[in-house]
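Researcher: Let's try something more involved. This one mixes different molecule types, so please make sure each is placed in the same coordinate frame as the others.
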Amino acid sequence: DSGVTQTPKHLITATGQRVTLRCSPRSGDLSVYWYQQSLDQGLQFLIQYYNGEERAKGNILERFSAQQFPDLHSELNLSSLELGDSALYFCASSVEGQGSNTEAFFGQGTRLTVV
Amino acid sequence: LAKTTQPISMDSYEGQEVNITCSHNNIATNDYITWYQQFPSQGPRFIIQGYKTKVTNEVASLFIPADRKSSTLSLPRVSLSDTAVYYCLVGDGRRNRDDKIIFGKGTRLHILP
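Model: All components are placed in one shared frame. Result:
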């Protein structure tokens, strides 16, 4: 158990809909990262927050947005969903935001299926 | 971020030692080398991190030559459960700089009985 909690574990929704994925970081971790992993694809970095502020952005679509709340949990909002958005979405957290020099702890992911 | 190159896939047998090499020719002075392991449908898990020479923990060893342009992850006596994708990462450790943790395609390790 990494200490990072993601909910829900599975989500099935229709095209055009909007969903919210939630991530609770490890206790004490200030930094949260979101990743998308499609079938047999690599981990695509989406966005990172540090202590409530956006720190780094990857290839995140304009239909996607995220935020980190004062209690440090984070939500990833996906709207106008398309079939191609079906993927595993991972959240990771770390104590500080030092990029790849930091040990990041990953949640078990949310499997999103768009039908 | 320093680009990394590692083999796409490797096969080995149970009980063997497996070495996965990663090239990172443009590694910067501040960069550490970090390896993660990912099982199917699970999030990656940190294995080991090092800066130079050799680091060993209960799971693996990491060998880094003096020029730091490559590194080798060594898994002793692998078992079927070591079948996974292994990612080599080299990052920019400067605070308040680019904090992305970028994963490449990794090495798909397949352990055979």
